[in-house]
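Lecture 7, part B: from sequences to assemblies.

Below are the input chains for today's worked example.
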Amino acid sequence: MSKEIIVSGIRPTGNLHLGNYLGAVQNFVKMQYEHNCYFFIADYHSLTTHPNPQDLHQNVRQVLVEYLACGLNPDACTLYVQSDLPQIPELYMLLNMHAYMGELERVASFKEKARTQPNNINAGLLTYPVLMAADIIIHKATKVPVGKDQEQHLEMARTFGNRFNRMYGKDIFPEPYAFNFGKELVKIPGLQGGGKMSKSDGDNNVINLIDSPELIRKKMSRAVTDTGPSEPNTAPSAPVQNLFDLMKIVSTEDKLTFYQQAYANCNIRYGDFKKDLAEDMVTFLTPVREKIADIQSNNELLKKVAKIGKEKAAESADKTLAECREAIGFRGF
Ligand code: TYM
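Predicted structure of the full complex, as structure tokens:
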């Protein structure tokens, strides 16, 4: 099998949660030994929300620790901090010249942000998909392991790469596609009964990789359910289906079947169901939580990893950028 170029990243917004792990990091770990992988911490992207410098630095550090704890191996992949690469904002600026207001305003994530934070609709939010395209195509990636919520951004990355190629009559960028090992992209549900697991719906909506067993039990006990099935063999309501979906991931098939049957027979006890799910969640996350604690204070390791990653990523980014500059006509004298 020939090696492909893979790129993906995560915004540093605190600790990684189970959605980040199952939608993205788990696949990073699987792909790093088979392909040419670039995984990064998307700290330029987090500037749209104006984090304070201390928090930003702490959050970048935490993602690096958790990437390593989840099994990313800096000898096998290129692991870097996005803001260590000024080549990315340069490509972002070049791509922005061919990105149009109309198409950017139609992006679902922009419309959602414009609705939820009307007092901070900055230009960085509007051009977020352009920055993301730059992240991806600067290494000429063809596959991008991400969760379902990033699908539209990948479509935009293809649009911007193709447009640049066409504009300058060069074949610089291949098309990148969202990837999940031949399967549907995943959307891990949250605990509050709504859509995906996401910090923007509060800490009680997510299970973080670092959450203690006590905290996991507490969050699970508060997970939203409903008043119970009113007649046998009905489809579960959305919040209960979310919990079944989580159980599918962390529990045995026998246990899942037991509770599904209990639901179908109208004798499910949500208290037991959630307690059981919490214990399996604890078992699932304990190894990674312990690993996080192991490397949490290893500054030397983090420093070394970030330095090597920066050098490897810059080498690849410089090459692509030189091709772009030449194509555009920035040729020097
Ligand atoms: P972010 O930081 O919101 O999420 C990081 C990754 O985790 C996945 N994810 C989920 N997957 C399944 N279910 C969930 N509930 C869930 N929550 C999060 C996301 O799909 C993502 O893969 N714009 C990106 C970061 C980014 C990026 C990139 C990704 C910047 N540049 C280039 C890939 C390539 C973001 O905000 O993801």
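Note for the exam: The beta strands are 5-10, 36-41, 78-81, 143-145, 177-179. Keep this in mind when comparing with the next example.
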